[in-house]
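hiii, so i know i said id send this last week but things got crazy w the move. better late than never?? heres the sequnce for the chain we talked about at the cafe, plus the structure i predicted for it. fair warning i was half asleep when i ran it
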Amino acid sequence: MAIISYAKVNLFFILAMACMGLIQCYIVDVSQETFPEPLQVYRGSFWAKGKYKMVRSTAQYIEFIMHGNFSLYSTRDLKNKNADVFVEEHKRGDHILVAVLVYDTTSSPPLQRSYFEVGRSHANPVTRACKNGFVNGPLAVAFDKQKDTWHPVIDTMRRYRNFNVHLWYVICNHACDYRATTEARHWYGDGEYHVSPITNIECKDNDERIPPSTLSGHFHGFSNIGRRFYAVVMDPAWKERYSITIPPIVRGVFRPMNIVTYPEDLFDEFPLPEVSRPMNLQIDVSTLEGHCSEVVILGNLKRGNWLYTQYSILPRKNPLRMNVKVVNVQHDRTIYETTDDTFVTHVEVFHNYINKMEYVVVNTKKLCQNTPGNSPWYEYIKRVYSPRDNVLPLTYVDLTDQGRHVFLEMLYSIEADYPPIPAARRVSSSSDE
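okay and structure toks below
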């Protein structure tokens, strides 16, 4: 294997040689968005709108690795053509870092790493520390429930609880997690990874206007239990485990509810004044990405003519101690902010993909004024907002005091049928724990 010239190369010359049979290989340009079989592609995201992409196969199919006009790496000298090759692109704006990992069981050491910084006029080798510093935080890799493969940093394991066996998909690049057979070991020391988003939790609709349904969060792993229930774990030690419930359809009517269940004693205290709350949390209804670890997002459930999205606050910290601001960053608008006597549990977005109507429902709990003694009483208040029709810049109208119950009755009585869910997943033989 060899790192080849970083200067611009004549790509047409290489392609011509390939056509003449002088180069029997795949030339992989990782800057592209589509790749032929048998190359496998996985995608993800990281801090500050960073985009991640991995292309993997064996040395038999990846011999020249390029990024645009720059030739970065060659595996032609490898005798073992079954060696695994992983090519990763980390991109934020015009700043790009490419990692090449080659795993060859006939070599010593078996794992070889190379890293490159790619600019408009250069491609230079850099260190692994430079790549990790560029990512600068957790890297979220997507998991598609309708596909039979997933990013190799994710592995499967069976865990036993209450005499039941559950299949988990877990980030396994931590020393305490991985086993000798897992490919996730190749990313040991590469920092924190998350499984997110989990896409196609319901089968993708044939209508191109309908984006895939998703479940997003800072998940270390997840398990799907039936149609409506997910268990997620937030840390490698498995100390933070939460249940996620997809809102039900009851007798043909969609019944939205908080996807997170709170402990009964969580609200046995009075809310702190705004200025004393130790945490500020922002929920941006214009995106499903970039939220903090306290937020889990159920995105784009198709219910009738509506797409339903929910941003729910996990009880990792007490919501009573959070100042929550609901915003639309894309249009630079603030929709709602907590007050001294309120706190937020979850935010719902209803988007009608036919007539483009949209409603934002902020679910709050407000301290009752006649609360006796040391036992706080709270009332649920749903605040309803909607963008003003055909008005720019975008402005949200507060409908809470303008017939709120009429809008809530419409939104919480959407007629719908359960869409199909993806078939059971293939499980690797290394899944037993």
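btw The radius of gyration is 25 Å. thought thatd interest u
miss u guys!!
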